Amino acid sequence: VDLLEQQLLISVGLPVAPTSHPDPACGIANVFVHTPRSGTIAHTRLFDHLADDPSVIQRAVYIEAGERVTAEEDGFPTVIGELSVRGRDPPHARERAQALVAALRIPYDS
Known about the structure:
By secondary structure, the chain is of the alpha+beta class. The chain has helices spanning about 5-10, 90-105; strands at about 25-35, 40, 55-60, 70, 80-85.
């Protein structure tokens, strides 16, 4: 979908009818990262090792060092960050994002 084209159509009052690009350039997966256990976060460098990963197009940390976070089993889970990942197609991007999240080491204070 060409978002710029759709925005221009909306801005002049024309009906919006997005169509898929016939040959997508890539797939994108966006994932919100929750903490796997409750605790206090030691530092916020949990995504720093992804800085040179060409598949990671966006990474954001939403917590502060020293912040108390909650896991799902203890209440409403804290979103600690977000990743956007590129792959050759959407399933590949989703698999890559899931692998990156599974490999994360969340830095808790002891």
